[in-house]
Specification:
Layout (H helix, E strand, L loop, with lengths): L1 H14 L7 H11 L3 H9 L3 H5 L1 E6 L5 E5 L4 H11 L3 E8 L16 E3 L2 E6 L21 H16 L6 E5 L4 E6 L2 H4 L3 H11 L19 H19 L10 H9 L4 H11 L6 H14 L9 H10 L5 H5 L5 E2 L31 H13 L15 H32 L1
Antiparallel strand pairs: 1-2, 1-3, 3-4, 3-8, 5-7, 6-7
Helix pairs in contact: 2-15, 3-5, 6-9, 9-13, 10-11, 11-12
Length: 421
């Protein structure tokens, strides 16, 4: 336990690369020189400036001062207010039927959300019962793959089962990931529709005290697809000594065997596991084979698949996804605890994403200074002087695809109207 505490302290130190006494100055430099105001306006305006003006924005300032119901009529007004307040955090809420900043002038109950991206929030702390390497806010290369595979599974479901095309995955800046589904169909979902999507995607249910957390049908195509994605990670990331090495821990052995709900069989397996030389992967192989030989005892349950999914399937905070008025941290802000930028993640190369190499605000300011000191007399955009350029390029490609659909939707709507006339 002492060693784990030391390791977690080292991991936390690795993420804390910014001197907090410098943070306000660095943050202002970032907002003045790098924050992508024009790209944000293009994103949040969608196919109408009204979408941007009626969007709720919240700021968290220094010392946790929180300001809700902000809204802006233009990109210039947004930029001016951000530079004036220099928020430590910016959250985005729903698009309302009026400007949220006028909420005190509007009768109670008459300011209502009309649309909002379908969002998902995955936090590493929800995997603490499975992590032997870290806990709480700490992360390391051994546990980050929980996030990698959560992205793989959910992105496949959102794409293949719902047909959503515009999915923006974003690193939270510290220990998790967010997803913004920006298709118009997704933005216009009612609370009931959002709840249906979230419930469909939630396979792992129950708190830390629950023994069996996966009770869904193992024959459903979405479950089979998820299992196919997750099974290699289960072996490599949870059972091997290079991963969590779960079955080397007696408490974890007991938890896994409890899922069987068969005390006699669990006792026999545990005794075999106790033999000298057994590692996590061989213990799992023995459990899986034993369960298969005794499948009549499980009344149709596919216990091996249940265990793989319970240990690896994405753990969602579905209340974030269900509500229209839930606020979520916006991309490209700086996490005040780590100094890292909340950058988009390229799903096509998600295995290559490393949160420890995400640039900090300190890195970015230094890179601009070094570039400028090189004496290059050019008009290069500030972000192109830095390691933030790939993330900006990814966001730009996302925006162009989204704008193409918005233009296509407007043309189709115009054609429909002409046809009706």
């Amino acid at each position: 336990q002492e060693q784990q505490a030391d390791d977690e302290a080292a991991q936390e130190a690795a993420m804390m690369e910014v001197d907090m006494s410098d943070f306000p100055y660095l943050l202002r430099q970032y907002y003045e020189r790098l924050f992508p105001y024009s790209k944000f306006y293009r994103w949040l305006a969608y196919d109408s400036p009204e979408c941007f003006a009626n969007r709720e924005v919240s700021f968290t300032l220094k010392d946790d001062v929180y300001i809700r119901y902000l809204s802006f009529t233009s990109e210039a007004e947004m930029r001016e207010e951000i530079l004036k307040k220099c928020p430590y955090k910016i959250d985005l809420g729903a698009i309302y039927n009026a400007m949220p900043r006028d909420h005190k002038k509007i009768a109670s109950g008459e300011l209502v959300p009309t649309q909002r991206e379908l969002v998902f929030d995955i936090d590493m702390t929800d995997y603490d019962e499975l992590r032997t390497c870290c806990s709480g806010a700490s992360i390391c290369p051994k546990c980050w793959p929980f996030m990698t595979y959560a992205i793989k599974v959910l992105d496949a479901a959102l794409r293949d089962d719902f047909g959503f095309r515009h999915r923006l995955w974003v690193y939270s800046g510290r220990r998790g990931v967010h997803c913004w589904v920006c298709d118009k169909r997704a933005r216009m979902l009612t609370q009931e529709g959002r709840s249906a999507v979230a419930e469909y995607l939630q396979i792992v249910k129950g708190g830390e005290q629950s023994v069996r957390k996966v009770t869904t049908s193992m024959t459903h195509p979405a479950v089979q697809r998820a299992h196919g994605i997750l099974e290699p990670f289960f072996a490599r990331g949870l059972l091997s000594a290079a991963g969590q090495d779960l079955l080397s821990v007696d408490e974890q052995q007991e938890k896994m065997l409890a899922i069987l709900d068969n005390a006699a069989l669990a006792k026999d397996i545990k005794e075999t596991w106790g033999q000298a030389g057994a590692d996590g992967e061989s213990r799992w192989t023995y459990l899986r084979d034993t369960v298969r030989k005794n499948k009549t005892s499980f009344k149709g349950r596919n216990v091996a698949q249940e265990i793989v999914l319970q240990y690896t399937y994405p753990r969602l905070d579905i209340n974030v996804s269900k509500g229209l008025n839930h606020l979520l941290k916006c991309p490209f802000v700086i996490h005040p605890k780590t100094g890292r930028v909340c950058v988009p993640i390229d799903v096509a190369h998600v295995d290559e994403f490393d949160p420890f190499t995400v640039p900090t605000v300190q890195d970015l300011c230094r890179e601009i200074d070094e570039y400028d000191q090189g004496g290059a007399a050019d008009v290069t955009k500030e972000y192109k002087k830095t390691s933030l350029a790939p993330a900006m390029g990814l966001f730009e490609r996302f925006l162009r695809r989204l704008e193409e659909e918005n233009r296509g939707g407007a043309r189709r709507e115009e054609t429909d109207q002409l046809g009706e006339w």
